[in-house]
Amino acid sequence: xxxxxxxxxxxxxxxxxxxxxxxxxxxxxxxxxxxxxxxxxxxxxxxxxxxxxxxxxxxxxxxxxxxxxxxxxxxxxxxxxxxxxxxxxxxxxxxxxxxxxxxxxxxxxxxxxxxxxxxxxxxxxxxxxxxxxxxxxxxxxxxxxxxxxxxxxxxxxxxxxxxxxxxxxxxxxxxxxxxxxxxxxxxxxxxxxxxxxxxxxxxxxxxxxxxxxxxxxxxxxxxxxxxxxxxxxxxxxxxxxxxxxxxxxxxxxxxxxxxxxxxxxxxxxxxxxxxxxxxxxxxxxxxxxxxxxxxxxxxxxxxxxxxxxxxxxxxxxxxxxx
Length: 322
Ligand code: NCD
Known about the structure:
CATH architecture of the largest domain: 3-Layer(aba) Sandwich
Shape: globular
CATH class of the largest domain: Alpha Beta
Bound molecules: N-carbamoyl-L-aspartate
Helix content: 25-40%
Largest sheet: 5 strands, parallel
Mean pLDDT: 94
CATH superfamily of the largest domain: Aspartate/ornithine carbamoyltransferase
Distance between the termini: 21 Å
Structural class: alpha/beta
Order of helices and strands: HEHEHEHEHEHEEHEHHEHH
Number of strands: 9
Number of helices: 11
Strand order of the largest sheet: 7-6-5-8-9
């Protein structure tokens, strides 16, 4: 494939490059099930995790992925750094460049921050978007696609796309970078996407998106033979107004619960990127059910991020079995 330098958006991935990353992630999952979970691939490379926004899963997952590939890892969080003294993204980036960063994994509250870093000329290395505002979160979309493909195709997964699969994305679409990246990648991989949310939690331009727009979860469950349902976190921290009458009302109409789960087909996946608001968009019973892939998603995140780092940073040089 043509060598990707940055991963800023799920739209950076063609169908074949997405499948290639998912296939490499299968190899990485093999490494992650060994006793010694380590490859020399990124020895001598420096990767900086630049986190301006809180994160548990994504930050730990990238760090573990980098360490398993033997990179030198620097964790930089805005709290406790000069950013809290007002240092700009430009100065921070130039400092990292002076230290010789080969890649920067960035999470930022501003939509477009990763693009700015990639195209500013401040940094020469690869930029990986680990979530920018409400815009995109491409490695989350890749790990979700990987999780779906693995659950559905098992050991036959390699080389497969997601064509023919029907996937629902439910909830706070308006504020969700996970929804945007998933919508793009799922379309690239041939899946059919249904977006389901209260009208107030759709962006104005949603009619132009490549998805079926629905306002009612029950109708979607009754009418569509869904293969996977992705629940989105209600992102209270991004809400400056009241988008639904009450939490009780939200969970009654748009929440996943045991009753709705029972109306999905037995093999349907119930997904959530975490962190979950148990009792709001998903009940504890649903989150802990056998359909739930929440912890698989976390585990798969490490393999997928190893694959992304490998594709961006290792060039053609090593065989991952080495
Ligand atoms: C998501 C994020 O931060 O965008 N979480 C994650 O990366 N696992 C989703 C969310 O915060 O709701």
